[in-house]
Design goal:
The structure holds 2 protein chains of 2 kinds. Chain A is mainly α. Chain A has one domain: Orthogonal Bundle (ABC transporter involved in vitamin B12 uptake, BtuC), CATH 1.10.3470. Chain A contains 16 helices and 2 strands. The two termini of chain A are 41 Å apart. The N terminus and C terminus of chain A are likely disordered. Chain B is built from 9 helices and 12 strands. Chain B is an alpha/beta fold. Chain B has a domain of 179 residues: Rossmann fold (3-Layer(aba) Sandwich). Classes of the chains: A mainly alpha, B alpha/beta. Chains A and B meet through helix 11 and helix 12 of A and helix 2 and helix 3 of B.
Chain lengths: 355, 260
């Protein structure tokens, strides 16, 4: 990190710290991945399998299935979903100029969920050519469209003359969430038994349905959204100074906002489509990172992706082991861990949050 | 190479905030815009910075600003808003760095600290911007704006500072400091356009003054030409007398008498 401190000699070099965090979090991510592959409901462990491979012994059928068809796709999906949730939180907070904005809290997740449920329940009614065209991607695309519509509506309702009202945003989010929830409820009524089984895991959020097919479905959209978000850092920094000032320092504000909204919707939509509503990752991760290394969005987005992936995979490990061989929905774990942190943020910021 | 605003009209709904206002500012000069509350001063600056919809033409160094990209504008002029609220807990130095990255001195990491020194806030570099007082925040924002156009002239082109009430929440010493910074920028070959409330500071530091009233330009010229009993009385709607001392025994404090 010597090069960085050369560039920025200053009393508080938080940018250098944030860049050092890139490496620390990458290392932690690898460690987390190993833990995730090591533990589970069966006695199969990564270390035992690696031992076998080292001695040239073949893996049993069971070991092969556990590693390749269960734990590995689940790990990859956890990484993708965790990164998507945290990055969409960070981008949305930058866009709304408020550290309390989060797709899960302000109804964007519910909107994406409605899109996904629509696709599952009514997808068969679409023209055949459209079904052929979208294939496995119908559900995530519908979730993306639901999330996009919700984000646009929310931004339109809560932003006047470049200023976003926190109170309006949260209240509009409650209304949006309630509306999406009600419409989803109607769809659940008309769903058949097979569709109902598909829907049950949505409410709480889970990685239990992880498969390579789902990874391939959601992965490209999440990667695209995360990579796009990485380019938003300077624009979101400018936006923190206000919309007019952002324009004055050379940012194409309308374009940047449109891209941010698309990225938030894509990341949220893809994550919701494969894992349901997993809350609090998007609000807790960026907040912890801002405490650790400052609010500069250029390193914040990448660090959010890394820490979000780490935390979600760890939460999934907890969900799998606490009541093994059964497992908790991961949404319960993230809520139990994340909701108190959210309340703590509110407590610390009391008086600063202008409603 | 000037900033020219020609025949600017701005309407807020039915209300005509500016009607056919024209203004030219030259590099090397401080051009002040004065007038009573609601006369359209900040609206005029808003039109000149393309912050709000207007009809008419605004040209920056000879080019219509609507044909320039945001980053091209940012390289030629910096804008100080009236008040700034920050959404996240950036430090003072981080805020000034955001300005540096917007300009053409982005490869000079020493500029932000120099800009902070210029506004007398070197020791504030590590402070949280959100904890500053209104006057301190305003000076930090001035440092950010200075970092954006650190060289008043670049490639033979003047660069511009557009300041919206830069001294509104400052004490008299810092008012003088900030006006001196504007003066120095102009002396370095750059141009300054400032919306001003304080007529004495305007008289002291401005080379040209535009007096706005009810969305129209009442007078435009040098301070002695414009700051007259008649013009000011008409603009502000009360009888004013220029250079008239108060009755004996009442203290008065003018910036003109200040020495560092």
């Amino acid at each position: 990190m010597a090069a960085i401190s050369d560039i920025a000699p200053s009393p508080t070099d938080r940018l250098g710290r944030a860049r050092a965090l890139h490496w620390a979090l990458t290392a932690a991510l690898l460690l987390t991945a190993v833990i995730s592959l090591q533990v589970g409901a069966t006695d199969v462990t990564l270390s035992a399998m690696l031992g076998k491979l080292a001695q040239g012994e073949p893996l049993t059928q069971m070991e092969h299935v556990v590693l390749w068809d269960i734990r590995l796709p689940r790990l990859v999906m956890g990484l993708l979903v965790g990164a998507a949730l945290a990055v969409s939180g960070a981008a949305m907070q930058g866009l709304f100029r408020n550290p309390l904005a989060d797709p899960g809290i302000v109804g964007v997740g519910a909107g994406a969920g409605l899109g996904a449920i629509l696709a599952i329940v009514l997808g068969a009614l679409l023209p055949a050519w459209l079904i052929d065209l979208t294939g496995n991607h119908l559900t995530p695309v519908a979730a993306f469209l639901g999330g996009w519509g919700s984000t646009l509506l929310l931004y339109r309702v809560s932003t006047r003359h470049g200023r976003t009202s926190v109170a309006t945003m949260l209240l509009a989010g409650i209304a949006l969430g309630a509306l999406a929830g009600a419409l989803s409820g109607i769809l659940v009524y008309i769903a058949d038994d097979r569709q109902l089984r598909d829907l049950t895991f949505w409410g709480l959020g889970s990685l239990a349905g992880a498969s390579w097919a789902k990874v391939l479905t959601a992965g490209p959209m999440i990667l695209l959204a995360v990579l796009t978000s990485l380019t938003l850092g300077r624009g979101l920094n400018g936006l923190a100074l206000g919309e007019a000032t952002a324009a004055h320092i050379g940012i194409d504000v309308q374009r940047m906002k449109s891209i941010a909204i698309l990225a938030v919707a894509a990341a949220t939509g893809a994550a919701v489509a494969v894992s349901g509503g997993i809350g609090f990752v998007g609000i807790v991760v960026p907040h912890l990172l801002r405490l650790a290394s400052g609010p500069d969005h250029r390193p914040l987005i990448l660090n959010s992706a890394l820490l979000g992936a780490i935390l979600l995979v760890l939460a999934d490990v907890i969900a799998r082991v606490v009541i093994a061989p059964a497992e908790l929905p991961i949404g319960i774990v993230t809520a139990v861990l994340g909701a108190p942190v959210f309340l703590w943020i509110l407590l610390k910021r009391r008086g600063l949050v202008e409603l | 190479m000037t900033v020219r605003a020609d025949h600017i009209h701005v309407a807020y709904g039915q209300y005509q905030a500016l009607q056919d206002v024209s203004l030219g500012a030259a590099p090397g000069e401080v051009t002040a815009i004065v007038g009573p509350n609601g006369s359209g001063k900040s609206t005029l600056l808003g039109a000149m910075t393309a912050s709000l919809p207007y009809t008419g033409r605004v040209a920056l160094n000879g080019r219509d600003i609507t044909t320039l990209k945001p980053w091209e504008l940012a390289a030629e002029r910096a804008v100080l808003p009236q008040a700034s609220r920050l959404a996240f807990p950036f430090t003072v130095l981080e805020v000034v760095r955001i300005g540096l990255q917007a300009g053409t001195a982005g490869d000079r990491p020493e500029v932000p600290m120099q800009a902070l020194a210029r506004v007398g806030l070197s020791s504030y570099a590590g402070r949280n911007f959100q904890d500053l007082s209104g006057g301190e925040a305003q000076r930090v924002m001035l440092a950010r704006v200075l970092a954006q156009v650190w060289h008043p002239v670049e490639d033979g082109q003047p660069r511009w500072l557009l300041l919206d009430e830069p001294v509104s929440s400052l004490d008299i010493a810092h008012q003088l400091q900030v006006m001196q910074i504007a003066r120095d920028f102009a002396q370095g070959g750059g141009g300054v356009i400032a919306v001003m409330h304080d007529l004495n500071l305007t008289a002291l530091y401005a080379d040209r003054v535009a007096v706005l009233c009810a969305g129209q330009c009442l007078a435009f010229g040098s301070p002695p030409e414009v700051l007259t009993d008649d013009t000011l009385s008409r603009a502000y709607g009360c009888t004013l007398r220029v250079s008239a001392p108060p009755p004996a025994g009442v203290p008065f404090i003018l910036p003109h008498a200040a020495t560092a």
